[in-house]
């Protein structure tokens, strides 16, 4: 296994942390944003920026609520 797709609730917390950990561990990591939900728009935007900077692939559009 060398690829990880991440989905879930709290894009800006749990999903972000899991995806960053996977990327740091050397996995090709993708967050499927259509299958996630964030807590608040500002923190989701920050999380998306952090994921991009870490080289995590993002698919779909972020959702809040």
From TrEMBL:
Residues 3-57 form the Isochorismatase-like domain. Pathway: Cofactor biosynthesis; nicotinate biosynthesis; nicotinate from nicotinamide: step 1/1. Its EC number is 3.5.1.19. One of its GO terms (molecular function) is nicotinamidase activity. Keywords: Hydrolase, Metal-binding, Pyridine nucleotide biosynthesis. Belongs to the isochorismatase family. This is nicotinamidase. It comes from Saccharothrix coeruleofusca.
């Amino acid at each position: 296994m060398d690829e990880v797709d991440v989905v879930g609730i709290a894009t800006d917390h749990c999903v972000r942390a899991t995806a960053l950990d996977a990327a740091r561990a050397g996995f090709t990591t993708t967050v499927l944003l259509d299958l996630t939900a964030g807590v608040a728009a500002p923190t989701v935007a920050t999380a998306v920026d952090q994921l991009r900077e870490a080289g995590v692939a993002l698919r779909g559009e972020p959702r809040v609520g």
